[in-house]
Amino acid sequence: MEQTGLEHAHDGEYQESQAQMEEAVRSAARLKEMELRTLRSEELKRIEFRHTIIQLALTGFGAILALGIQQKLSLVLLFYPFLMLWLSLLWRQNAEMLTKLRGYIATHIESEEHQWERALKTQSHPTWNYDNVFACIFIGSELIALGIGIAQNPQNIVFIIIASFCTVITVFLLLVRSLPITEFVDTSSESIS
Predict the structure, then answer these.
(1) What does the alpha-carbon distance between residue 75 and residue 154 come to, in Å, rounded to a whole number?
(2) Which domain holds residue 119?
(3) Angle in degrees, 0-180, between the axes of helices 74-104 and 181-192, rounded to the nearest 10
(4) Which of 18, 30, 104, 140 is the most buried (most CB within 10 A)?
(5) What is the pLDDT of residue 189?
(6) Which among 137, 135, 139, 134 has a CA at the least distance from the CA of 81?
(7) Which of 40-49, 103-112, 135-144 has the lowest mean pLDDT?
(8) Cα–Cα distance between 149 and 168 in angstroms, integer?
(9) What is the pLDDT of residue 185?
(10) How far apart are alpha carbons 60 and 52 in whole angstroms?
């Protein structure tokens, strides 16, 4: 009788520990899902911010080009490369944060059966993607504004040099890429192991 009571006690403890483990697994899965939803929300906000940057750049180009040509204000046209420098800084920071978000989701959250970020990375073209196309549009609009500004008043040497310097920095920011974040994450996890 004593052994049966002891077995029931051990059996009860075992079932209780199993129930606690199952609850912990469910809780971890809920936390992982919440984390994924939060990161996806952040990703969508950053994509919306990219569209805002594109709208600002193209609207600014149209307005500055129209005002500069119509009023023959070369200084206004030479201001556009400075504006694009700041927009390219925002674009680059946003692009790097998107890469970090996507790398974290791919390496830490996605399960074996759901690998959207990894599949997306393997299907993207390394040269002609969204970032490079808009980088070319940004740089092209900047060169047009710079060229028209120089043609209108080539005596503004100081402003031409500053605008040219801003253009070079913008080209560097938009076309030179940093190391992919997934390589950084993979090498750091190997060194910890």
Answers:
(1) 11
(2) 2-192
(3) 40
(4) 104
(5) 44
(6) 139
(7) 103-112
(8) 16
(9) 46
(10) 12
